[in-house]
Amino acid sequence: MASAQATIEQNRRAWNEVASRHAAQNFINTGTNLRTKPGFYIDPVFRDCLMSRRLNGKTLAQFNCNNGRELISAVQLGAQAGIGFDFSTAFVEQARSLAEAAGVAAEFVETDIYEMPAAYHAAADILFLTAGALCWMPDLRRYFETAHRVLRSGGTLFLYETHPFLEMCKPDRDRVEGEALNLHYPYFMDVPVAWGSGLDYYGQKKYGEETVYWYHHTLSAIFQAIIDAGFAIRKFAEFDHDNSIGYREVESFPIRPPMSFVVRADQI
Q1: Structural domain boundaries of the chain?
Q2: Those residues with Cβ within 8 angstroms of residue 229's Cβ, 6 or more apart along the chain or in another chain
Q3: For the domain 4-248+262-267, what is the CATH code?
Q4: What tens digit of pLDDT does each residue of 83-113 get?
Q5: How many Cα atoms within 13 Å fall on the side-chain side of residue 48?
């Protein structure tokens, strides 16, 4: 089994590989939406979370920000500025281009989250992460300890993530038409899953050569890592909608598992 650092580097290569495919499918539309529909990529559930902290005058940060569309949208809701962090060179370049075109005060930093530059300690009032962030992180406690350092005193951490129960099932693109929704992956896993179907969750097609490694974290592991990093959990809510785009077919099922969740945690 590859080391945790080796999986991070492999996943970085995989995200850089898929970046041009994502851009070909959505970059122009994303830019148009950001310029003409402020806040477009923040759905009502997460908008309510962010607005509960009164964004005026505040700096927002996002870990695993990808092309930055959510951070840019969040800043458009009234924040003073934003800082996005991601390990993919190609996606950070996309994010910078989108922010400039939208006229939004957002900085995007290429970095391994675990190697956060000291210049960004105490840089933000609110830090958030969204669907598909935690599964790339081998060490949750170190991840949330980094979040604690990036936040200013009294800062707030928001998670709006895919539910770990849902991740026990195959995503839409790995299920054949008409295939029932069954439990495919174990809930408790000590090693990451080596996934060969790629990261083209827009086109739903396999491509390229880069394997990805994703980590399945239980709810209890997520909560405990947040607590151990120095936060107090103030809110937890579960939902039956897909806040990624990986399980949209499942949303049409009459009986659905928990599909997403929100956590608010404040520094203590």
Answers
A1: 4-248+262-267
A2: 141, 144, 145, 147, 148
A3: 3.40.50.150
A4: 999 999 999 999 999 999 999 999 999 999 9
A5: 6
